[in-house]
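Design job #97: recover the sequence.
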């Protein structure tokens, strides 16, 4: 509930005609305000202030009209300015009360609490200000609890994401280690196969060398056999020649004196 100044009259050093004119505009604005025609009320209040910038009712009720149009930032600014003016305590209390309402609607709960406290300092009997003060404190607590819950949820989600990323990194490290071991085993198997192929090549070279040695030995053996055969033929030929010569000598000896040897028989 907002507080309005509807028929408070202040004496300023202005002409009577002008004073009457701004009061009429304020009354027209009040009529529009009571009919919930807040935009029309604002127009009339501003016209009244054009006539009399020092009109407290015009300034106060203009701030009310702005508030009802949900421009809480602007209305808070206007009520704060009124509260700082040199006014009676009751009027100051009303200004700070409406300032508290504007700040409450803007969800600026800490500032609204201070505004209600100022309202009560100026008018301790204001039950509405006392009620709204407690309401603002509860709203501030709810806001803080909600903010804390939101932060806790955020921290929980961050922790969850952190654990998820950590598990993901651990799985990645595990997969990398597995791939590394797999590649290492593959390299070891490749080295083993390469060494096996190398041993095969060496064995093949050794076998080729051995086969080549055997072939050379066989060739040498065959060559030796061939030479031996030739030598044997030469020796055989030589023997034949020697035997022939011997027979010829024997024949020549027979032409001389022949000696007959009688062989006795054994009985």
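Job complete. Output follows.
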């Amino acid at each position: 509930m907002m507080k309005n100044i509807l028929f408070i009259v202040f004496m300023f050093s202005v002409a009577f005609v002008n004073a009457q004119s701004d009061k009429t505009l304020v009354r027209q604005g009040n009529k529009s305000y009571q009919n919930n025609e807040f935009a029309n009320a604002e127009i009339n209040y501003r016209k009244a202030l054009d006539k009399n910038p020092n009109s407290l009712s015009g300034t106060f009720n203009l701030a009310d009209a702005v508030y009802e149009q949900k421009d809480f930032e602007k209305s808070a600014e206007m009520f704060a300015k009124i509260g700082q003016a040199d006014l009676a305590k009751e009027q100051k209390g009303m200004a700070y009360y409406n300032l508290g309402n504007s700040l409450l609607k803007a969800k600026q709960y800490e500032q609204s609490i201070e505004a209600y406290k100022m309202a009560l300092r100026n008018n301790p009997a204001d039950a509405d200000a006392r009620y709204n003060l407690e309401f603002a404190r509860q709203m501030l607590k709810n806001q803080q609890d909600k903010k804390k819950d939101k932060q806790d949820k955020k921290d929980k989600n961050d922790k969850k994401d952190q654990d998820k990323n950590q598990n993901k990194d651990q799985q990645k490290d595990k997969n990398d280690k597995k791939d590394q071991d797999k590649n290492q085993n593959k390299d070891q198997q490749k080295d083993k196969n390469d060494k096996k192929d190398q041993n095969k090549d060496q064995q093949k070279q050794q076998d080729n060398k051995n086969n080549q040695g055997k072939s050379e030995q066989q060739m040498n053996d065959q060559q030796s056999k061939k030479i031996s055969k030739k030598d044997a033929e030469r020796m055989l030929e030589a023997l034949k020649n020697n035997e022939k010569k011997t027979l010829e000598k024997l024949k020549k000896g027979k032409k001389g004196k022949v000696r007959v040897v009688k062989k006795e028989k054994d009985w």
